[in-house]
Amino acid sequence: MASWAAISQSYARYVGIPQFCLGILGNLMNIWIFIHELVHRRTPCTLYLLMASSTGLIQMMSGQIPRFLILGFNDDLTRVSLVWCKCRQFLIATFGGIALTFQCLATIDQFLVTSRSAHIRQFSQIKWAYRISIGVFAVWISQGIPFLVFNQIQSGTCIIGNWILNMYWSYVYFLGLLTATSITVMVTFGVLAYHNMHLLKNTARLHSADQQLTTMICMQVIIVVISIAAYGGYNVYSLATASTLKDAEQKGKDLVAFTVTSLSAFLNYGSSFYVFFASSSHFRQQTKKYFCCCWRFQQITPAEVATTHITRR
């Protein structure tokens, strides 16, 4: 029978790596699609989804690659490089929060645009979305700077060398902001947006694309909540049993639970393209439109260009 460590290692290799590759591909496709959408249809939600995909890509590169290298191959660069020890913690603390914040903002915006109140709908404006986006980056980058200062390597382990910052990371940042706050915001406004959409479904005011965008956001909320709640639950358990003596069997089980939930948490940042593609015919059409156009452009030969030029003359 395989040991718990071997199960954890196999999961990181054979589930974590494919999950990462699909997540990176999905984010790149999202970025391509939403850039084109933003040119033709400038809405706050489109901007927020573009920002969420862009920062989610960075989060996966800085967080998930080291995670499956550590768990799957026992290769931890933070043990030997102080620069990477500091930078990885900064990137995770910064871009994880930014990506989730933009997902929350996209959910809130869908509540605004589906409201029956014209006054509430006025709060969904692209000019405010740009300003809010700048503020989001400024706040999260500022809160991540202390990790560059206090992270250090002790006894071959990268740790947060300040107990106040360590408490902030464990309780305020992850359990408070990323888990409790994001779940509360996304569930609350996701339910309200879905309710608004059904109230306006038979009216002409709500555009078909907006209806499908609301459905996309609500489906993504479900994925995010499940993945965050699973990893958040493990962290609550880990903190609650930190002072408990555990035998080798229990430690092995905890390692498997940590591997599964921590890698699943990255579904927040890499699953949106597939959720959108499955839940929206409009998104599928836009995907085919932009990528088919790109493919046709690449297939144009110099001879065809010359022929077109001569014909126009």
Automatic annotation (TrEMBL):
The chain crosses the membrane at residues 12-35, 47-70, 90-108, 128-150, 170-192, 213-235, 255-277. Keywords: Membrane, Transmembrane, Transmembrane helix. InterPro entries: GPCR_Rhodpsn_7TM (IPR017452). It is found in: Membrane. One of its GO terms (cellular component) is membrane. Residues 26-276 form the G-protein coupled receptors family 1 profile domain. This is G-protein coupled receptors family 1 profile domain-containing protein. The lineage of its organism: Eukaryota, Metazoa, Spiralia, Gnathifera, Rotifera.
